[in-house]
Write a structure and sequence with these properties.
Radius of gyration: 24 Å
Distance between the termini: 22 Å
Strand order of the largest sheet: 2-1-17-12
Number of helices: 24
Number of strands: 17
Largest sheet: 4 strands, antiparallel
Oligomer: single chain
Helix content: 40-55%
Strand content: 5-15%
Structural class: alpha+beta
Length: 617
Amino acid sequence: MSKGIYTLSVLLAVVFCKTVNGDIEDIVKELSLKLSESQVKEDTTFIPGEQWAQQKGAYPSHVMLNFVGDIEQQILRNYGRFYDNNAFVTLWVTVMQLEAALLPGGPDVGEEQLSLALDAIHSYHDRNRQTDSSILVFWPQKLDKSTGVWVCDAANIGAVAVDEKIMSEVMVWLLKDIGLVNDSEALKEFTQTIQDSINEFHIPADADDTFVNIGLGGLLEKSKYKTSYSKWQQDNPNIVIPIKAGSEYSYQPLGTDIDNSLIDPRSYFYLRNFLYKKQNQSNSIALPTTWMVSFSENAKLVDKKVRMPFNLNNVDLTVSANVLYGITAAALSNWTLGTLDGQMYSDIVDMLIYELSHNFTNRPDLALTYYPSKFVFFWFTSRTLQLLKAASLSRKLPFSRMDDALYDLESYLRSNFTDALLKEAIHDESVAYYDDFLGGDDKDIFGKPVNHAEDRIFSTAMAANTLLYTWRDGTDLSGQTPLLVSTTIQQLCSWLEKHVLSGEYKPHNVFFSGSVKDSYLDMTFFYPTNYQYWLNGTKLPPDFEVTFYNSIHSAIGMFGMEDANWYYEELQKEHFGQKTPTDFHGYNSDLFAFWSSDELTYSATMLALTQCQYLFH
């Protein structure tokens, strides 16, 4: 498409849809101000029934439970929420603020706001490493003096979950104005779910926060915030360490080392067809894992209260997308990176495209292990395309594997993926929006179905950002952008402009969860396995029963690869009394804990509107 035809398509879009109006600049400013005001200015400690522990410099997020149904369930979902301090939200809010600030006319963040955030982020560097390795954890760490090991400590929900008296005080505090009685069955279920979850909070360092932090450094390097960039460099003196660690902890199913070849059987289930395809093309495969710890290291840490869930690593597509972006940002920076792990880099790209084109093997709950929102994954993936495309316009990419990645990502995301995403848009006269699942299966006071669309703002913003990052060449839209794409983007921004601050919809999201969203679908041991051992290397007995206590020192996983016939036969059998669940029933089928942040919604919307303001207004 020529430049002239592209210009005409934009003009036609202005005529045939409601375009972004003059209020957008004010809305962007208000969103920027909301983010600045919501950033925590002073540390506070947890006082049951009075105040949450809050970390200075962090942006707020809350742990909630996905209750679905009648009014009581809705109250518990929206009011029974626990403030949480974590690295992920502050990293991503800061990233999106910088992405917006880098655009022409984008909102200013300010060195003071960035400095507060960077101080908070730096506190999440894993203190169990001998040097500052720039390997991060999700929660703040607390020293266990009895073992000398730093353990992740979710201060608020952790304190609540281990003490029934504190739990009762907090629930009365949260629900005092709602009128929900303490002896309700729903409230009892809420309490039990929180108490059951505490044992999964003592997790090791993870690749997701680690590589998002690397990407943050790449954005700061390109920004005008030189003081903040200098601070980030001081906090992260050797980026080679985390990038090398990402390769060392990678999943290598064709190898024989248990530290790289043992994987969560849920990951193997959704990945197996991709792995068979790669096996026919190559004698090696390397994919990033979620946890920055090996199986052997994990076995030594279990009794020190640090462990991977189920004692197994896994492959999460969303984590992999962030690892890909972090490696790309490092390679394109002025830092000393050395060589690129071309095997893992290319395998990530191939995996992301394969799973996108095969609908996550019909199990998004397994493929998006910790990040239920597919729109989050879509945007994370499109970011690498945008980063590579923008760099390629002004320079030669430093590695040939990056040229291949650019070609493959652009070819798929700008064709089949875009077509599929556009078909999901919901059109309402001159605007459009996207829905996910939060609040989508509720009932009104008469028992009739109602969609409260509590993640509609967030989903719409992330879908808009995905389309924009897929079709932008640098700061401008590609001259090849189809009319339907540019029109839909403007319709999405028009909807966001109207609703983000209207109060009509909640600004909630489901940016994070545990790996188990449905206890009948997502337990590791319901899937075919060929490795069933105690952590000391002793084989589990034939009559082994899975309980919480004996699962702490055992691992039931997939080692290496088995052929397709073996796997098919295993799928026909029961595993620990349960047939392997092969169908996904949606995220509203069972109760599970999730993390939500209004600030993530506001920053995502601010980013989308800033781009629309520049491109179309």
